[in-house]
Amino acid sequence: MSKKVPLYIDGEFVQSQSSQWIDVTNPATQEVIAQVPCATQTEMAQAVASAQQAFLTWKEVAVSERARVMMRYQALLKEHHDEIAEILASETGKTFEDAKGDVWRGIEVVEHAANIPSLLMGETVENVARGIDTYSFTQPLGVCAGITPFNFPAMIPLWMFPLAIACGNTFILKPSEQDPLTPTRLVELFEQAGAPKGVLQVIHGGKEQVDFLLDEPAVKAISFVGSVAVGQYIYRRGTENMKRVQAFAGAKNHCVIMPDANKSQVISNLVGASVGAAGQRCMAISVAVFVGSAREWIPEIAAELAKVKPGGWDDPDAAYGPLISPQAKQRVENFITQGVNEGAELLVDGRNCDVAGYPHGNWVGPTMFGKVTTDMEIYKNEIFGPVLCATEVDSLDEALAMVNANPYGNGTSIFTASGAAARKYQHNVEVGQVGINIPIPVPLPFFSFTGWKGSFFGDLHAYGKQGVRFYSETKTITARWFESDIADVSGPNMT
Ligand code: NAD
Questions:
Q1: Does the structure's ipTM exceed the value 0.90?
Q2: Among 75, 228, 417, 419, which residue's CB has the most CB atoms within a 10 Å radius?
Q3: Which of 38, 144, 167, 282 is catalytic?
């Protein structure tokens, strides 16, 4: 019997009464390791009612006490770091090192949330008119909700609920149905950290459960991370229902390689950034843009990529794990076939990849295409697999034009020894996160995660100061006190 994943409603882990359950599988073996329910309408209504009730008391809890919950939570997550990473590896197939990174990046957001008192500080101006002062407070919204993808089952839930809750909100999480065991463990530890009953709820399921959150009037704000089509849908439906929505979506991230770049750095960084985590990262480098004579390095990069091997989560020599599902593997292999058919040069072919001991894993080997052009489907689509597309241009201006014409704008990087080239790229590129000699420029949580264009729908991004603003309202007070109202306290008792 596989484990049944509970819901978390009103401070209790409860078994769903649903008749619809989805299998959670180990992607390296296809073994069913758990079943996750599609929460019923009644269960979801209970979660909302409990979150509304909890908000009434949680918003009154002193901000320093809210911060202390986050401090205790951070300590517990650190203590259980490796254990969470093992759970994560079992349901995603990530290598242990990669799984630990997923947990660690989430812990960093909890650390940020523990700074909530100073993050909530408002503005003040004395004497906006004679004797009148104006000052602002940051107040919570109420019930917020988060819908998360499969590819970072620790980090992305932790992008959301700690900060929302530290701001004084209550939160309903709908994790990916493909890897719900990691978020369940995160929630157990949150309870252990002393989070009061009802402050966090977890419902499971798919579209029907997401639609419930999008339509429920009590939910004031929606955070989403996932694919482009679903992100657009969630942004449209959520805002149609007059909610605040931040939707982080897919990407096609370019790395521009100038001929003066440090070649050995380029090669090692490109290999890790393109096929690491089997390319299942929204910040993975999927297009390498070789400028001028840098194109001569393509064969060497292909040779290095070909050496990389996927494998089991506990194999120290494995560079990455399997794709999340047989469907995801099929989709990536279809793109590889399509790339060949549309005339790209297949330099490294990752199809028909076998890993000893795992005959049923969703393996795709490292793959690299040369001579890719911007009209090809393998260029236009997010493949979300270990596939690197190499393109060639003659100048930095041409590289910039290519990147800026791409509809996505999550991340990009440039490798160069020229400060002037880096400055020009950083200033002109229409992408929200830029690395200079850094392949995957994910900002630490005291900044914000700032994807642009088709990679993000909304106004305020995740974590940093923007995350606090997303999960709060500003109240601005203008006050006048009349000196003539000051009581005369100079009577006989005072002398
Ligand atoms: P997905 O869009 O399939 O699923 C994300 C969430 O949406 C899940 O919780 C899922 O249950 C729900 N969902 C799925 N279909 C739905 C529908 N039709 N209606 C409503 N809800 C639905 O994404 P995924 O495959 O889990 O994650 C991979 C994608 O996430 C990639 O495109 C990747 O680039 C993107 N991603 C983006 C970022 C970012 O910060 N921009 C970060 C991580 C992942």
A1: yes
A2: 228
A3: 282
Secondary structure element (H or E) that encloses residue 474, with its range = strand 472-480
The model's confidence at residue 490, banded by pLDDT at 50, 70 and 90, is confident
413 touches ligand 1 (CB under 6 Å): no
**Chain position carrying tokens 């463990």:** 185
Q: Which of 352, 442, 434, 361 is nearest to 399 (CA)?
A: 434
Pick the atom of ligand 1 nearest to 174's CA. Answer: 9
What is d(CA 351, CA 330) in angstroms, rounded to the nearest whole number?
10
Residue whose entry in the numeric block shows the structure tokens 């599902």: 325
Q: Which of 173, 176, 280 to mutate to test the pocket of ligand 1 (most atoms within 8 A of CB)?
A: 176
Residue ranges of alpha helices (H) inside 241-315 are: 263-275, 298-307
CB 310 near ligand 1, within 6 Å:
no
Pairwise CA distance, residues 148 & 323, whole Å? 18
Tell me, using a 6 A CB cutoff, whether residue 147 lines ligand 1: yes
Q: What is the mean pLDDT of the chain?
A: 97
Provide mean pLDDT across the span 184-213: 98
* Residue nearest (by alpha carbon) to ligand 1 atom 30: 226
Active site residue 38: no
131-161: buried (b, 16+ CB within 10 Å) or exposed (e) per residue?
eeeeeeebbbbbbbbbbbbbbbbbbbbbbbb
250 lines ligand 1 (CB under 6 A): yes
Token pair of 82 as six digits: 């490796």
Is 0.90 topped by the overall pTM?
yes
Give CA–CA dist 377/174, Å, rounded.
32
